[in-house]
Amino acid sequence: MATSLVEQYERILASDPRSRVFVDLARALLARGEARRAADTCRRGLAEHPQSIPGRVLLGRALLRSGEVEEALREFHAAADVEPGNPYALNLAAEALVEQKLAGRALPLLERAAALQPGNPRIRGWLEEARNAPANGTAKGAPEPPLPKEPAAEAAEDAPALREEGASGGVEAHAPCEADPPFESPTAREPAVPAPALAPDLDLEGAQDGERAPPAPPSLAAGAPPPLHLTPPPVPASASPAPEPPAPVGLLGELPAGASAPPAPKRVAAPDVAEAERIAEKYEHALREEMLAASPPQKAVPRHHFLVVAGAVAAALTVGGGLAYFGVRRANRVGDARVLVERARRGILRDTDGSLREASRALAEARSLDPRNARAQSLSAIAAALRWADYGDEEARSLASSLLAVPAAGEAAPVVRYLIAGSEPERSSAAAVLASIPTTPAGAAEAVAAEALTSQGEASAASLRLEAAARSSPPSLRALVALGEAANARGEPEEALAWLSAALAAHPTHPGAAIAAAEARLRLRRELGMALATLRAVEQDAGSPPRQADRLRFELALARLLAASGDRQAALERLALDALRFPREPALPLAQAEIRLVLGDCADAEGAARRSVASGGGLPAHLLLARAQACQGEYAELVRASADQDALELRVMRTEALLAMGRPRAALEEIESIERGGRMSADAAATYAVVLDAVGRPAQAKAVIDRLLAMAQPPAQAFVAAAGFALREHRTEDAEKLYRRGTAADPEFAEAHCGLGRVLLARGKGAEAASELAEAVALAPAHRDALVALGRARLLNADAAGAREAFRSALARSPKDGAILCGLAEADLADGNPAEARKSSDKALEVMPRAPESWLTAAKVALAQGDRRAAARLAERARRLSRKGPTAEEAVRLIEEARRPRG
């Protein structure tokens, strides 16, 4: 299996030296123990893609295997410097060095990794091992690699710092930890991030082609109210990762191994409780000194009055000193409480389980220091209510309820009642009250108030409130995530990522931001490596578990990313365990069906999709069921099962199924019922053109295709349909160009790759054809035509084993397909196994007795077995059935060879 993978990757690179598949090839070579070849492959690939993190890490691994430790260290540092705030490259490099017993040499990398993710127990363990290594594990006489800059230092050099308080925006830095550290407000870089352009709706009955211009960025003038649904707040430049290879549709293709995360801005230490005590002591001492310094000068006291005066002064000092001391101590306790309350406010705005618990502890101490502090009482109630609402903490709910009875906490009552409401009517009533208040205590629950406004139908007011909270200092991470979720819901993942990247820059393991960002990246089919690394970091951070309501979303996103990385079995195993935890969730069998389809397990995918449909999976479940049925050729069942579904996507699939069943008139009726609605998507229009051609209206079909091709961004289906016309008119070169444009328009469209591969095969370009057809099969493992053509291309390339593998995969799905049986027989012949070839050719004759190809294959087998008379007879039958064309010419050649005298 490894050999065929290596050869496949090498062919792809031979046809496209700029392909990022060099990473997969290097990984496969390393797995085979060919470290030097892997290193050479990485160097060639990095010449084209110098910013490839996985390429540099793999080069480092290959160099380590070859004993070139210093070179490997340089590559590891270079990988880490591509995105200084991304711990992923650091983790991989450190792991490689630890595996090679070079923990001491990993120390600089581990220190950087630990600074970015102090809550990672694995990194902490490696760091301790590295520090205990003799002489830091440095080889004698070997020069130490240069220490890279700290991410925070680079951030400080790259952009001006923003003040902690009073800035119009800003992002707090936070590293994941098991229990969040004291809450801090460091500076952050903030270059503007424009909102993405949105694709226009297609109206084939008169819409203007082209793209919308991106919306103008919002004004940040002082005092200007935040705009509605405009550009997200500035995001650190490092939040935008280095370019990665395009991610695949759904769950296919190469997953970039280098997952990136924004660099943590410079951290400014905030005082902890002990530090607050030291500050209080210092303040008390300074106050006493000031009181003494401010005392007026005393006149000389006559000696005979000395004892009387001394006694009076002593008494006065005793009483006054005691009063002054207790006054100062009271001021210190109040000051300490204020410090703790501010720390807690920042913790609430950070919005994780760990930060809320830390906030609650700080507020409990603040209440004991200053029971009259209304802010401490209010924020305590809010923090407790959030812990109940998000994480189901019963003890926190009891505390929140009890604090409602404290008059000083009355300011928080609307928020708390909304969060701990026990019934829907109670929650609705509390939402109405909360929506009416202008602000929440210390701005700590603005995102909750916005949620209440939304539930009351005031979406615009909610958006304004969220944007104000997101631009506050420090920002509300809950508000940033809510804005990202809203953009995702509107189908604007680019805008969503701008908001969510800001949240992740402040707290790299914020669970809500990580989940929503993963969903946006899955929709965009890019930066999936970054998304997977972020979710893995969330999983390892005990202080940042997903909220109760988000746990299923977390599992689904992680499973889909695992499948996209190629670890589909691990994804399925995880989903199987999740099904025990969430037994009635339709999304789980839906994800299982999606992964099974990618694997080509069409029958299992159909079963999972049916379970999702039965449990209320809705349109996505019906679509996956239809795809699984089409994958197995169950077109009649697809039409029957989807008959009561009126969604556009299902109607297009029904149209294609009717075409495959040989019912073009019924297909036309189905697709025209969509067209009569006045609007048709570009993909549906491409299907419409194919149907028009099938019913004998080629002129109309061409007109539709021409309109599609005139669009600013034609769909890939339009190029494929146009290529079909070109082939019919024997314009092979034009067809090839159109198929290539189709693969460029949608690199994950299997039909475009299959069509291009078949054209290349017909033109005798076996190696390039095999590469395109292998891509088509990777995208659609059950694609019968792609598998058969791939087998033929491999035969042309003298790859008999690869051809047999392709034909057997196709035969497993269509065991009575004569063309596949003929191909398998020829692959066995090419591999020197005529006995196995005979079995396949006999079956082909049974299922296709009127096909000249069956007789021609049987003639080849007979000739290989030395039966010349039978070979001539079988070839003659093939000639008569085909009469003319390539098959007839091949039959004549075989007849002549069979009749040629031996020797």
Please describe what this structure looks like.
This protein has 903 residues and is an all-alpha fold. 65% of the residues lie in helices and 0% in strands. The chain has 43 helices and no strands. It is globular.
Please name the CATH architecture of the domain at 2-151: Alpha Horseshoe
- Which residue ranges are poorly predicted, with pLDDT under 50 across at least 5 consecutive positions? 135-310, 312-327
CATH H-tier superfamily of the domain at 2-151: Tetratricopeptide repeat domain
What share of residues are in beta strands? under 5%
Count of individual beta strands? 0
Give a quick precis of the structure.
The chain has 903 residues and is mainly alpha-helical. It has 43 helices and no strands.
Secondary structure layout plus pairing:
Blueprint lengths: L1 H14 L6 H10 L3 H14 L4 H13 L3 H14 L4 H13 L7 H10 L4 H12 L18 H8 L114 H21 L12 H45 L2 H17 L4 H18 L2 H10 L9 H7 L4 H13 L9 H10 L3 H12 L6 H13 L3 H14 L4 H14 L3 H13 L10 H14 L3 H14 L5 H13 L2 H13 L3 H14 L3 H7 L6 H13 L3 H12 L6 H13 L3 H12 L6 H13 L3 H14 L4 H13 L3 H14 L4 H13 L3 H14 L4 H13 L3 H14 L4 H13 L3 H15 L3 H14 L4
Helix pairs in contact: 1-2, 1-36, 2-3, 2-4, 3-4, 4-5, 4-6, 5-6, 6-7, 7-8, 10-11, 11-12, 11-13, 12-13, 13-14, 13-15, 15-16, 16-17, 17-18, 18-19, 19-20, 19-21, 20-21, 21-22, 21-23, 22-23, 23-24, 23-25, 24-25, 25-26, 25-27, 26-27, 27-28, 27-29, 28-29, 29-30, 29-31, 30-31, 31-32, 31-33, ...
Keywords:
903 residues; mainly alpha; Serine Threonine Protein Phosphatase 5, Tetratricopeptide repeat; 43 helices
